[in-house]
Every structure is written in C-alpha cells, then in structure tokens.
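DM from R.C. (forwarded with permission)

"hey, sorry to bug you on a friday — could you get me a structure for this? deadline for the figure draft is monday and I only need the backbone to look sensible"
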Amino acid sequence: MKKIALLTASLLTTATIFPSSATADAEDDKEICLYYGNVGAAAVEFLLPLKLQQVVDLISGRDEALLEKMNKTVEGVGNVRVKTAMKKIGDDAAEHLGASAGFLSFQLVMTGQATTPQEVFSVLYRGCSETGPERIVENQRKAVQSEPQPEN
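My reply, with the result:
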C-alpha cells in the first residue's frame, strides 16, 4: 500500500513538473488527425478521375502500376512531425492509419456521403479527433488480425 501511495505521489509530482506533456500529446493527436484527413483527401483526389474499372483493378490489386502511383501520391502527405508522432503509437501506425483512411474515403465517396476531397478530409479529421488516432490504429490492428488467412 505504501509503494502505491509513493508511486501515485511520484506520478502527480511528475505531472505537475511537466504539464506540457498532455499538450504535446494533444498536439501530436491533432497532427496525426490532420494527416489522416489529408491521406483520405489525397486518395479521393487520385480516385475521382479514374474509370470505375480502374478503381476495381486498383482495389483488387490487379493494377499494380496504378496502386504504386496512388501510394506515391499519398506518401507525400506527411511531414517529419507527423511521422514522429505516429511512431509513439507504433511502428505500424502509418500503415494502419493509411489503410483506414483509404477504406473510409472510398466508402464515403461510393455511398455519396462525400463528393469532394475536402468533404472527405472534414469527415475523417472530425472522426479522428473524436475517436483518437490510437483507437483507429488499435481497431485496424484488430481487423488485420481477424482476417482469415489462406490455408497452405
């Protein structure tokens, strides 16, 4: 019991001495959410001029050249600060955030909930700000783990 009290006192003292750590996390979250929205907007901006067959080929993985072009377009979205902030969530954070942003962006456009990259950005940024980037990454990790694996 005494150790718990000492640990609690130590944590409270640390929080008092370094109050900006919470602000840094909030700023990191904001940067990551801006990135998340921008990835979605960039993906939609890339997809909108394509023919439906090209989109199908892209999503199914049949057109690797088009997939590579889209990846290069989306890669240019982040900056050093965003990449540093994402590393705090995990080495795979960028991959999972990108996958989530791409999927949701496509879903928003295909269901008519968003018709422009700006609308996609707004929806994704707001959703990320409300949910938190850590939760998005965690959910994507769970989704990947629950995908059925091909039998050998």
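R.C.: lifesaver. The CA atoms of residues 58 and 65 lie 9 Å apart.
me: no worries. Confidence is low (pLDDT under 50) at residues 1-24.
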